[in-house]
Design brief:
Helices cover 58% and strands 0% of the residues. It is built from five helices and no strands. Helix 1 runs antiparallel to helix 4 and helix 2 runs antiparallel to helix 3. By secondary structure, it is an all-alpha fold. It folds into two domains: 92 residues; 37 residues, no CATH class. The structure holds zinc ion (ZN).
């Protein structure tokens, strides 16, 4: 799901308020990326129970964009979330998923299982990929 949140982020990151300071723009970009990843993570966890994920994501991030760019942001979000939803539905139909998606094998600092999607062909998500390297070195 990582590639879908990145694709949405890439499509809209340059639409962030151009009159904000550089620091603010960076903060906004980070916030937008986090919201994209949260939405994709939730979509992967609960594909059947997450109603209107595109609207939910747009509602969470619209404040980072000037009014004049919001129509384009809404469009990009709808396209990106639509592509991710189609992908998940195909996976479920093909029997590759039972409505959930493979999870990262790592445990978070709070002691919960990491809920993120592993990198393709890996056991860990982008944040925890160093653990896989550690396991390979240890082996
Ligand atoms: Zn992880």
């Amino acid at each position: 799901m990582y590639q879908y949140s990145r694709a949405i982020y890439r499509a809209i990151k340059d639409l962030i308020d151009p009159y904000a300071t550089k620091t603010t723009q960076l903060e906004y970009r980070r916030a937008v990326l986090v919201e994209c990843e949260l939405t994709m993570g939730r979509l992967a966890d609960d594909p059947h129970y997450f109603a209107r994920p595109d609207r939910a994501l747009f509602a969470d991030i619209r404040r980072y964009f000037p009014i004049t760019n919001q129509a384009q942001v809404a469009w990009s979000v709808r396209e990106g979330v639509g592509a991710a939803t189609t992908f998940i539905e195909q996976q479920i139909e093909a029997g590759l998923l039972d409505g959930g998606i493979a999870r990262c094998h790592a445990t978070t600092r709070k002691g919960n299982a990491c809920q993120r999607t592993p990198l393709p062909g890996r056991d860990y998500c982008p944040s925890h990929q160093h653990l896989e390297r550690a396991a390979i070195v240890a082996a």
